[in-house]
Structure formats: C-alpha cells, structure tokens
C-alpha cells in the first residue's frame, strides 16, 4: 500500500472507530425501551438537535451531488441551495415547536405514523399503515442513494471495488445504529456535522487559493463558458420553481423532523434554529463554491473527469496531505453515514411500531420491540445494498425522487395537522395517498409535456404538494371536520405551545 493510501486509511480507520465507540457508549447510556431506542428519551440538546438534523438531511449529495451539479451546470444549481435554505428555516418556524409539543399531547407519539394515528384518533389504523408503507418504500430508495455515494468514494479514492465500499459503509453504520439507537445516531450526527462543516470551509478555500483567488477563478470560468456564472442562464420560470421547490420537502422528511420530536424542550427550538441555519448556510455555500472551482481546476490541469459528482474527491486527492485527505474523505462518509443511520432508524422504528406490534404482537414488551427494531436495521440495510448495486446511479437523482415522495406525501399533512384544527382523518389519508401517487406517476409514469418527461419539465414535488393540499382541504371539509376530542387535543397543543 502506498503512502497516500496508508495515510488515508489511517484517518478513515480512526473515524470508523470513533463512530463505533459512540454507538457502544450510547448503548450503555440510553434506556432499553422504545422511547429510549427510537427517540433518545426526548432529551437532545439544541446543538445536537441542530447538527443532527443538518447532517442527516444533507447526506452525500452535499459533498457529491450539489458540487457535481454546480460543476456541470454552473451557478443555476444554486437555486437548489436557496430553496433548501428557505424550506429549512420555515421548518424550524412552523413545524419544530408545534411537533415537539403535539407529539407528547397525542399520547406520547414516538414515530411519525404514531403521531398521525394519535393526532386523528384513527382506530382503523389506516393512517398508520399507509404512512408506514410510504416510509418503508421511499426510505429504502433514499438509503440506497446514500450507499451509492459510499461506493463511489471507496472506488475512486481507495482503489477498492464499488461493492466493497457499499458493504463497508453499511457495515459501520449498522453497528453503531444497531447498538446505540437514536442516541448514537444523534451523537454521531453531531460529530459528523462538525467534520462536514470543516470540510466545506477548508476545501473551497484551498481550491480558490490554488487557482489564484476568486478573481482568477471567475475569469477561468468565463473563458470556459460565461453562462456558467449567470444564475438565470437557460432557466425558465418553471425551472426556477422546480429547483426552489426542493425546500418544500423539508416539511415531510421523517428523519429530519423526528429531531424536533426529540429536543428536550420547546424553549430550545430557537437556539437549535440559529445553530442549524448557520451550519446549513455555510455548508451550502462551500458546496457551491467547490463545484465552480472544480470546473476551473479541471480546465487548468487538463485532467479528464468522467463523473462530475467526484469533484470533491479530486480536490482531496491532489491538494492535501494524505492524512488530511483521509479526514476530508471522512467528511463524505460522515455526510453519507449520518443520513443512512437516521433513515435506517426511522424505517426500523416504523417496521417495529407500525407493522410488527400492530399486526403480529400487540402485547410485545419493550425489550422485544427494541430487538425487532435492531433486526429491522439489518434487513433494511441489506435491501438498500442490493438496490444500490448499480455504480452508475446518480446520487442527486435518487435523492431527488425520494425527497419529492416524502415532501408531497407528508409535507402538507404535517403542516396542516399542526396548524389547522379543521383537518380530519379522512383528509389526512387523502392528502398522503394523493401526494405519494402523484410523485410516483410523475417520476416513473410514461407521461410527457411537449416531448419532455414530466419530472424534467417540473419537479414532481410541486404537483404532489399542491394536489395533496387540495385533497386535505376538500376531503376534510366534505366529511365534516374532526371529532370534538381531536379538537380538544389541538387546543391543548396551542396552550402548551404558548406557555
């Protein structure tokens, strides 16, 4: 093994040991019950909540997908970052405080399907089952997307096979998630968020310095293609709406909003918001600059770059000492692993609470539910590895489809369940089904607009979100509104929110 590979492996090995160590620590610290394993006992600090939400949100697309889009298309891709920033901010304002209070008011709901069922007093279990199906379906795809990033990292940077990268990435995540549950996931997310922030600051700075500064980099891009510096170049109004619409997805992402359920107090939400938004803005700017600087660097060095999503890897290999390169590669793994672990835990929690306990063992003791949750982590990870077996999969495309699915199915449902007392169970079911089916048909159906696939013409989350909202209002209104007891829970939430 050469010096470069040795240095990188030392850094990555240390990183893996730290993550596993945190998982073991969390195993002994948390309570061995479902609230402890799946929600950390609702005792997360604002800083851990914020960085855990951010790290689990960004995944490998922050260091691979977004820089790759900026490299290929120029600053027009920054519309995604703008939309995400607005969406995340509104998520902290609208959803975070209300969800923290309401999930306790709604019979101490631990999972999102739990909350939906309790919020609307759904004795038929229809809401719980449909939401569990949506979570299992879209999160398995989402987890596979994250694993694709891990496979690409090992293949392009460590000269290991793509398949080896999949199994190593999934293996380490499974170990600490399996043992430490939500507490381990949140604590590792915090560490991973710090690593990601450092990487998204240091890489673009060093890249710009190597290119001679901002002015020289800008001139180099102009020489390649001046339109790359025009944020409206080639964009239609629908194109801009499609990119901004990524922000709508935040309201319906279970792995993100579950952090709001776990924060120790609603009074801590503003602090978490300030930390989380600062982290996010710095990271997104760094990712965008990395992609643009990468285009100038590849031109300057006359190298060949087959996959734009590997531009961050190029910088780590050519501009840094091997030990630092290993640390920066760990940042990519941090982004990937933080998302995978959160997704695995959400899916396993849903499989446990909303499938196993509901249909197979209604009286299952807490310890058995935790065991089923751990087994589910392994099963979902293996399925995701199988789905991620194609190394040509695009991280950004896979993520965008799953993101749209959750945003349309759950986004309007979450918002209106927290802000409109007139919503009822029938409206919730209609909104969820309409949102999910719209995205599936929009992305995978054989439909076109002027010869262009619908999802290329307009991002699927837009029609999905709109039609879901209409379904919620129409069906809730036509079926007579909520029961009096549901309205009473809503009033209790509002009182507790204003204390």
UniProtKB/TrEMBL annotation:
Disulfide bond as a keyword?
no
TM annotation in the entry: 6-28, 76-95, 126-145, 165-185, 197-217, 237-258, 279-298, 318-351, 371-389, 401-420, 427-445, 457-475
Q: In which compartments does the protein localize?
A: Cell inner membrane; Cell membrane
Q: Does the keyword Ion transport apply?
A: yes
Under the heading InterPro entries, the entry gives: Na/Glc_symporter_sf (IPR038377), Na/Pro_symporter (IPR011851), Na/solute_symporter (IPR001734), Sodium:Solute_Symporter (IPR050277)
* CDD domains according to UniProt: SLC5sbd_PutP (cd11475)
Chemical reaction(s) catalysed: L-proline(in) + Na(+)(in) = L-proline(out) + Na(+)(out)
Keywords, ordered alphabetically:
Amino-acid transport, Cell inner membrane, Cell membrane, Ion transport, Membrane, Sodium, Sodium transport, Symport, Transmembrane, Transmembrane helix, Transport
The source's superkingdom equals Bacteria
Cited Gene3D superfamilies: Sodium/glucose cotransporter
- Kindly give the membrane topology term recorded for this protein: Multi-pass membrane protein
Q: What is its main location?
A: membrane
Against PANTHER family, the record matches this protein to: SODIUM/PROLINE SYMPORTER-RELATED, SODIUM_PROLINE SYMPORTER
What family does the database annotate?
Belongs to the sodium:solute symporter (SSF) (TC 2.A.21) family.
This molecule's function is given as: Catalyzes the sodium-dependent uptake of extracellular L-proline.
Name the UniProt record assigns to this protein: Sodium/proline symporter
Organism, as annotated: Psychrobacter coccoides
